[in-house]
């Protein structure tokens, strides 16, 4: 397979922030609402379990990249180590997940710009679209730096909001013990969608190829930071308002309780979260397209611009097309592509151990790739997919 992607240096911190920025999308603000029946403790349980499982699958991909001389994305690694069917499955999975997320960020950014500045939603999306597309055109180095700057800003905003919540007179931490574990299954599904940075591992490997030993450490640090941030938002919102008063988007709850400054800061945070997630998912989608179809995006500007257009224009058009049925279709395919994304990395690392073309600087501990762990991951994600489909078809009560 021709190696069309070139190495571009990023720092350890930029690698960590790529993971955090990609994971911290719009989901972080809706997670409190999703847990309103189950409560905080079942949510925390799933954040830990799914966080660990996702980290394992990311480390599988990391080892496979370290056993491969060429810089390849998930679909390229799948082609090399699993075969043609695995490669197309992986490419379809990346495409559908990316499309679904980018459509959501396009329409969500318009809504947010409208609520913050009162401007037309389409204009809001256009204003969001400009920096979103520009960084993808500039490449991996620009993406790493931008993720670092904006994610650092997001962490400061979150620290201010959480700090204000902790000191607020009506904050009551006993709300964190409310809820019912019976409702824990639907919460799992949302948490799976929040930890979505598997795509970004080959991009990080490409950026850290000058210090490959830092790759697994950057993954673990990025996932741990994600966990802390995602756990803090519902902790704050639920202890501030109680489960029965949680709004669908956390920014509204914060604004109501803490005052208008919190509403503006939380919405500013949400906008940054969408932007960093857009860069992470859009950037890896771009590289997957280049890898799958051998497009020289790192050496030919015209090819790069055309590939960026393929990534950024359809989600913008579909967000405002009124094709609700299409978005529903994406939901179903997204559920199954989530299963592909959880299963194929294990097959990739097994193939890489047999047929890799270079000695790895690091490899997963043997217990981490034990078949029992793989079977557990497979069962968890497959049952999640079945649940998601049954709930969508109204064969299970919504939210349980």
**Rg of Cα set:** 20 Å
Largest sheet: none
Can you tell me the CATH superfamily?
Answer: Amino acid/polyamine transporter I
CATH topology: Amino acid/polyamine transporter I
> Helix content range of the residues, please?
over 70%
- Number of discrete domains: 1
Q: Which CATH class applies here? A: Mainly Alpha
Secondary-structure element sequence? HHHHHHHHHHHHHHH
Instruction: Give the integer mean of the pLDDT values.
Output: 90
Shape: globular
Low-confidence stretches: none
Distance between the termini: 47 Å
Structure class? mainly alpha
Beta content: under 5%
Number of strands: 0
Helix segment tally: 15
Question: What is the CATH architecture assignment?
Answer: Up-down Bundle
Q: What do these coordinates show?
A:
The chain is mostly helical. It has a single domain (12-392), classed as Up-down Bundle (Amino acid/polyamine transporter I), CATH 1.20.1740. 74% of the residues lie in helices and 0% in strands. It has 15 helices and no strands. The protein has helices spanning 12-23, 27-34, 40-66, 74-81, 84-117, 121-138, 140-167, 184-194, 201-207, 214-241, 250-258, 260-292, 301-319, 324-355, 371-392.
Summarize this entry quickly.
It is found in: Cell inner membrane. Its main location: membrane. This protein is mostly helical.
Summarize the SSE layout with pairings.
Blueprint: H1 12-23, H2 27-34, H3 40-66, H4 74-81, H5 84-117, H6 121-138, H7 140-167, H8 184-194, H9 201-207, H10 214-241, H11 250-258, H12 260-292, H13 301-319, H14 324-355, H15 371-392
């Amino acid at each position: 397979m021709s190696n069309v992607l070139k190495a571009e240096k990023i720092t350890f911190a930029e690698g960590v922030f790529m993971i955090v920025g990609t994971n911290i999308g719009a989901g972080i603000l809706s997670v409190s609402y999703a847990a309103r029946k189950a409560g905080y403790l079942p949510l925390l349980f799933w954040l830990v379990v799914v966080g660990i499982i996702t980290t394992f699958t990311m480390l599988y991909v990391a080892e496979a990249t370290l056993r491969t001389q060429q810089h390849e994305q998930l679909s390229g690694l799948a082609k090399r180590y699993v075969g043609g069917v695995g490669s197309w499955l992986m490419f379809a999975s990346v495409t559908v997940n990316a499309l679904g997320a980018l459509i959501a960020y396009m329409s969500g950014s318009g809504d947010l710009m409208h609520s913050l500045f009162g401007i037309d939603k389409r204009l809001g999306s256009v204003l969001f679209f400009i920096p979103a597309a520009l960084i993808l055109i500039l490449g991996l180095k620009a993406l790493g730096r931008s993720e670092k700057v904006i994610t650092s800003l997001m962490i400061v905003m979150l620290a201010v909001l959480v700090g204000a919540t902790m000191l607020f007179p009506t904050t009551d931490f006993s709300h964190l013990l409310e809820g019912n574990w019976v409702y824990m299954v639907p919460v799992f599904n949302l948490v799976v969608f929040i930890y979505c940075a598997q795509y970004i591992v080959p991009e990080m490997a490409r950026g850290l190829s000058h210090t490959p030993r830092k790759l697994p450490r950057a993954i673990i640090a990025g996932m741990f930071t994600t966990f802390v941030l995602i756990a803090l938002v519902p902790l704050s919102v639920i202890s501030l308002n109680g489960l029965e008063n949680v709004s669908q988007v956390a920014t509204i709850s914060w604004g109501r309780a803490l005052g208008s400054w919190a509403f503006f800061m939380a919405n500013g945070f949400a906008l940054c979260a969408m932007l960093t997630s857009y860069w992470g998912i859009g950037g890896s989608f771009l590289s997957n397209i280049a890898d799958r179809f051998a497009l020289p995006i790192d050496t030919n500007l015209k090819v790069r611009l055309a590939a960026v257009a393929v990534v950024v224009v359809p989600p913008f058009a579909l967000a405002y097309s009124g094709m609700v049925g299409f978005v529903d279709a994406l939901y179903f395919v997204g559920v199954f592509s989530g299963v592909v994304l959880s299963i194929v990395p294990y097959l990739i690392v097994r193939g890489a151990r047999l047929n890799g073309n270079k000695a790895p600087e690091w490899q997963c501990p043997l217990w981490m790739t034990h078949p029992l762990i793989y079977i557990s991951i497979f069962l968890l994600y497959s049952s999640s997919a079945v649940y998601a489909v049954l709930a969508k078809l109204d064969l299970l009560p919504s939210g349980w």
